[in-house]
């Protein structure tokens, strides 16, 4: 029918039509006809139709025709596991048994139906939000897409290939390893990379725009996946759609926020449209009548928000988010809309000259902010398998540890939308790497164009999030070029080409994408880097401080020559025994067993042949603790070692503010149950280090240390107001006797580190104390409320002469689990509370219990526990 293309704005067309009809029919018939036209079901522009195609998929190895149910989004590894074709990937050595999967080709297919109404739409797009990675897509046996980048979405006009009724969608995935090898073999030189788990001569991840960590890393397995890893859908429209929007806060002054931005509209039908913006579903800030021609059209806008509620990072205030809704109208009918949660804030990366070199800090809404946080990796190597609840737990672990920044590391993925949404809501800023890590890139034009598309897509996708603080080009590539022998491994002519490729990607393509599509956000070419794209020098820029662990320096090295912003550092520990039981048998419980050595991925053969991360843990443990012979005790002490390293580092970094303005340790989480640098293991269990990180990150922190043969106590504050408190210093014997005390009123200055106490160590030693038998207790109080406290020991734990201590325990049932009260007659070092029940969370653990100072902790669990179910372990028992 001709009437199907009419709409409410076709008045002139209708009028002319009726005038012509009036010559041959009477007025009554004309009125009836007009009523029929205006009441026609299709007389108004329709909203864009979107249909999910995530359902009813099946898969098979190509050529076998053995079809099994599949999950989309998903991966072939997860689908094989769900169908009983492979065993638990995380158990013992099972990872080795599934390496064949990466060399096969896999096909996925589904049947879906399209009704006639949708099939008649002017534009019908097939949308893949993520294909991993080399894929040919067929619709009704027509190849409509060849994909080769995991990190971008694909939109294909499929109107001419669809039919009313049933349609078949088929995706053939080619082996990413074989495809990578084809490209590798086209070069007559080997591109430098660091990937200890790649088979000899195979560096295929360099050639493939796919998550590098899928090929194995020094904390994760090699599981080279394929699959439809993000949503797939159909989208249909007749007139126009909002392609994307961009909003930025240009500045805030006189209680007014100035905002600007634009909407890009894909237009199919020329004509008059209206664009408006509603804030919190009530205030209209943009209302534009626009004449649009076919194609992609850009509509600029500006508006103000009076007395804005600002977005603040965790610890500084509410991370307020406004609800923005952009409506695109045809006449009175809304034909498309875009919604986003927007935080009004200004954020600058400040690099100003100073006595050392140049500053490196973030200024949020005019306030310099010390960044406290960690690096994050995907919470599962099978990236689509991460549940929303896991993301919520990840962000809660960050906020519970008083963090305000996370770094999305460049060997992983551009994270799921829910990750950035949760960061927005929780006031967590994100240092966002582009996905390049520890490897150089091929320089052919097709590869560079692929990178350009990837950068454009992901900057556009993420730019409106209040959490996005920085775009960083790569992880350690500049460092590798100069310090890992990469440059020297290449012939001069090749070397020049490879370096020019580096410059094109990280000095041209990526910064151009940020400048064009997210101009409010700073670009940083590599981590670590000094100002001006120079090698990290601790005088400017950021630093990866691996002098501890890889450099085998003592923990005290964290306190020397402190960098301006530390974006990586760390030490390893074993996860809890509950987690170890999940992936091993009792016969594996030895750090030298095959399972434990294969689970450990940090191999350091430059130290000695066969020396790996387990050996390094033991090497460091021997420096600070007495090394237990029992495996379970070794696991426990490894966590104490881990905690001591992170406590030492964070306190040193914060004491040195504003010279140092960031401390992001490696790493917050795990991608599988393993031995790693993570402070929270794969199952969400806190290691001792996460409790230590939480305490070291408190907004008001006391930090005793020894400087130039003096005992110095610092009060470090992230608060915006001065804190007037009483400082109490006590030197205690392990039995609770006070050997020395001091108290005075102190002013803790806002947003900085302040020395609040200094005493020559010789004066303290005059008290005749034995360094192995005393502890310093420092406390800040305000009207008897403890605002901060810390303990300081003068010797390493292995040198402490710990007493036999008797711990008294009582417990009572609460609505969330149990409340446990503990007290002791002498110092109890690193008290660890555990149960045979694996789902218990303790709000504090691995703490020192002072004599005469009872402590109450909460055991959160759904299980019904009794007092006899709690098991105590502490360092005193092992000496």
């Amino acid at each position: 029918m001709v009437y199907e293309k009419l709409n409410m704005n076709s008045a002139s067309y209708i009028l002319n039509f009726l005038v012509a009809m009036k010559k041959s029919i009477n007025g009554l018939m004309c009125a009836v006809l007009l009523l029929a036209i205006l009441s026609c079901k299709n007389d108004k522009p329709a909203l864009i139709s979107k249909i999910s195609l995530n359902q009813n998929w099946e898969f098979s190895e190509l050529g076998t025709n053995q079809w099994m149910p599949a999950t989309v989004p998903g991966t072939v590894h997860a689908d094989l596991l769900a169908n009983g074709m492979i065993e638990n990937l995380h158990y013992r050595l099972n990872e080795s048994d599934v390496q064949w999967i990466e060399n096969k080709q896999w096909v996925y297919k589904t049947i879906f139906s399209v009704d006639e109404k949708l099939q008649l739409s002017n534009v019908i797009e097939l949308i893949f939000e993520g294909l991993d990675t080399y894929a040919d897509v067929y619709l009704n046996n027509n190849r409509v897409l060849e994909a080769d980048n995991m990190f971008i979405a694909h939109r294909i006009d499929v109107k001419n290939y669809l039919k009313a009724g049933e349609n078949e969608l088929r995706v053939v995935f080619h082996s990413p390893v074989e495809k990578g090898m084809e490209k590798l073999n086209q070069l007559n030189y080997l591109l430098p990379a660091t990937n200890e788990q790649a088979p000899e001569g195979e560096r295929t991840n360099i050639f493939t725009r796919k998550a590098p960590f899928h090929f194995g890393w020094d904390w994760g397995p090699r599981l080279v996946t394929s699959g439809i890893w993000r949503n797939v859908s159909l989208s249909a429209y007749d007139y126009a759609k909002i392609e994307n929007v961009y909003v930025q806060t240009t500045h805030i002054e006189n209680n007014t926020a100035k905002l600007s931005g634009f909407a890009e509209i894909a237009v199919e039908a020329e004509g008059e449209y209206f664009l408006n913006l509603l804030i919190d579903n009530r205030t209209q800030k943009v209302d534009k009548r626009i004449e649009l021609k076919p194609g992609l059209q850009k509509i600029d806008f500006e508006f103000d928000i009076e007395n804005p509620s600002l977005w603040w990072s965790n610890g500084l205030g509410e991370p307020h988010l406004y609800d923005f809704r952009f409506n695109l109208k045809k006449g009175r009918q809304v034909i498309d809309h875009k919604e986003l949660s927007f935080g009004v804030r200004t954020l600058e990366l400040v690099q100003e000259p100073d006595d050392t070199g140049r500053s490196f800090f973030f200024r949020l809404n005019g306030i310099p902010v010390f960044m406290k946080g960690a690096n994050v990796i995907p919470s599962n190597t099978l990236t689509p398998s991460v549940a929303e609840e896991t993301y919520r737990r990840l962000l809660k672990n960050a906020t519970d540890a008083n963090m305000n920044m996370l770094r999305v590391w460049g060997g992983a993925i551009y994270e799921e939308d829910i990750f950035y949404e949760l960061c927005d809501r929780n006031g967590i800023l994100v240092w966002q790497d582009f996905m390049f890590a520890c490897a150089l890139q091929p320089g052919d034009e097709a590869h560079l164009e692929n990178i350009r598309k990837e950068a454009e897509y992901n900057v556009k996708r993420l730019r409106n999030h209040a959490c996005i603080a920085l775009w960083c080009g790569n992880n350690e590539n500049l460092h590798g070029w100069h310090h890992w022998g990469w440059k020297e491994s290449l012939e001069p002519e090749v070397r020049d080409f490879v370096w020019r490729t580096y410059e094109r990607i990280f000095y041209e393509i990526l910064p151009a994408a940020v400048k064009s599509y997210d101009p409010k956000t700073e670009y940083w070419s590599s981590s670590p880097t000094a100002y001006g794209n120079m090698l990290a020098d601790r005088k400017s820029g950021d630093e990866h401080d691996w002098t501890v662990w890889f450099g085998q320096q003592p923990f005290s090295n964290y306190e020397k020559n402190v960098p301006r912003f530390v974006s990586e550092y760390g030490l390893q520990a074993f996860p809890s025994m509950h987690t170890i039981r999940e992936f091993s048998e009792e016969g594996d419980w030895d750090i030298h067993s095959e399972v434990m050595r294969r689970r450990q991925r940090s191999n350091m053969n430059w130290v000695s042949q066969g020396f790996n991360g387990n050996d390094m843990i033991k090497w460091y443990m021997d420096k600070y603790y007495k090394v237990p012979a029992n495996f379970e005790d070794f696991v426990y002490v490894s966590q104490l070692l881990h905690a001591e390293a992170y406590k030492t580092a964070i306190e040193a970094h914060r004491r040195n503010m504003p010279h140092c303005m960031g401390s992001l340790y490696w790493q917050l989480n795990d991608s599988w149950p393993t031995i790693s640098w993570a402070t929270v293991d794969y199952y969400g269990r806190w290691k001792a280090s996460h409790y230590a990180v939480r305490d070291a990150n408190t907004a008001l922190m006391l930090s005793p240390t020894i400087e130039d043969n003096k005992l110095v106590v610092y009060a470090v504050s992230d608060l915006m107001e001065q804190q007037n408190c009483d400082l109490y210093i006590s030197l205690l014997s392990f039995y609770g006797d006070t050997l020395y005390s001091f108290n005075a009123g102190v002013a803790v200055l806002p947003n900085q580190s302040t020395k609040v106490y200094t005493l020559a160590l010789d004066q303290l030693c005059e008290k005749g104390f034995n360094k192995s038998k005393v502890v310093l207790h420092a406390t800040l109080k305000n009207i008897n409320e403890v605002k901060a406290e810390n303990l300081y020991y003068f010797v390493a734990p292995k040198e402490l002469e710990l007493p036999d201590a008797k711990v008294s325990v009582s417990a009572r049932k609460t609505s969330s689990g149990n409340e446990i009260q503990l007290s002791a007659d002498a110092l109890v070092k690193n008290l660890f509370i555990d149960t045979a029940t694996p789902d218990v969370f303790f709000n504090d653990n691995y703490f020192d219990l002072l004599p005469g100072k009872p402590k109450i902790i909460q055991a959160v669990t759904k299980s019904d526990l009794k007092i006899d179910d709690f098991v105590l372990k502490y360092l005193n028992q092992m000496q």
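DSSP finds 16 helices and 46 strands in the chain. The two ends are 91 Å apart (CA to CA).
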